[in-house]
Amino acid sequence: MAGSTAELAPHELRVLVAVAETGGFSAAAARLGLTQSAVSHSVRGSEGKTGAVLFVRGRAGATPTPAGERAVALARRILRLYEHLGAEVRAAGGGAGDGDGATGVLRIAAFRSAALHLLPPALERLTARHPGIRPEVRVVRELGAGGAGEVAAGRADLALATLGPGQPAFPGLLTGELVEEAYALVHPAGHPDPRSLPLLDWDENCGSYTRDWWRAQDWIPGATVKAEDDAMVLTMVGRGLGMAILPGLSLREATDAVDITGLGPSGPVRRVGYVTTPESASTLAVRALIRELRSERA
């Protein structure tokens, strides 16, 4: 496909998103109140304008190609700006300050312990100062693309995610560090030799930057039990089923059933921060949330 210089209109972007999210032209048509032929015609037109095949058609439906996935992600982000446009312009016309006049839904993605411990105080202050903002928080597993992937795909305005080596790279996203937390050894309270216990772990527990440290420690065995999440690991340790190495956010839920031992100055750390897009970072609501998250750090 050669492509053209014509721009995709908002209704064409909505069609691309609907096809990707419903998995087919018929389902997208039903969602949008269009005919299937109208959806098919719109997709063909978008492919002509972009110069790329955006969907693989088959009996099972329509699946985005790599080019289609990128187009759909950008379409979501562009449509999100349309949603912000009215509030942003009204606030500018009224001379509102940073975050003043922010209204509407603010979509946030976060992994479990960040959603449990970092977000609530920031959201409490945010909604008290800006009652027009309606936060929608979705917990996502920090595996693969994780929270940053939700932002890149246009499904979240901002994510709380782990930062640093070993994490997926999404060029063009903006990040800011909020917390640097140390890992610690957690074991049943009063156990005389916690390093002799089996290791409990879960899939989200740290990336390659901490795994390198793990591999250099000859006292850490391979994990014998994999749990669903860090809360389950902590509960199992409290029941005497093993030891674990957990980051600081996870240990905020520790009870008297466990003891926590530091791993020293050379022990691993995890950086947690926010991820957003340049266009979202310029909106009133996201700016206000970032300010509240940073004040929590201070």
Please specify the SSE layout and strand pairing.
Layout: H1 10-22, H2 25-32, H3 36-50, E1 55-58, E2 61-64, H4 66-93, E3 104-110, H5 112-117, H6 119-129, E4 133-139, H7 146-152, E5 158-163, E6 174-188, E7 199-202, H8 208-215, E8 223-227, H9 230-238, E9 244-247, H10 248-251, E10 258-262, E11 269-276, H11 278-281, H12 284-297
Parallel strand pairs: 3-4, 3-5, 7-8
Antiparallel strand pairs: 1-2, 5-11, 6-9, 6-10, 6-11
Helix pairs in contact: 1-2, 1-3, 1-4, 2-3, 6-12
Question: Overview of this structure, please?
Answer:
The structure is a single chain. With 298 residues, the chain is of the alpha/beta class. The protein has three domains: 1-95, Winged helix-like DNA-binding domain superfamily/Winged helix DNA-binding domain (Arc Repressor Mutant, subunit A); 99-178 and 272-297, Periplasmic binding protein-like II (D-Maltodextrin-Binding Protein, domain 2); 180-268, D-Maltodextrin-Binding Protein, domain 2, CATH 3.40.190.10. 43% of the residues lie in helices and 23% in strands. It is built from twelve helices and eleven strands. It has helices at 10-22, 25-32, 36-50, 66-93, 112-117, 119-129, 146-152, 208-215, 230-238, 248-251, 278-281, 284-297, and strands at residues 55-58, 61-64, 104-110, 133-139, 158-163, 174-188, 199-202, 223-227, 244-247, 258-262, 269-276. The strands form three sheets. Strands 3, 4, 5, 6, 9, 10 and 11 form a seven-stranded mixed beta sheet that branches. Strand 7, helix 8 (208-215) and strand 8 (223-227) form a beta-alpha-beta unit. Helix 1 crosses helix 4 and helix 2 (25-32) crosses helix 3 (36-50). The radius of gyration is 23 Å and the shape is globular. The mean pLDDT is 89.
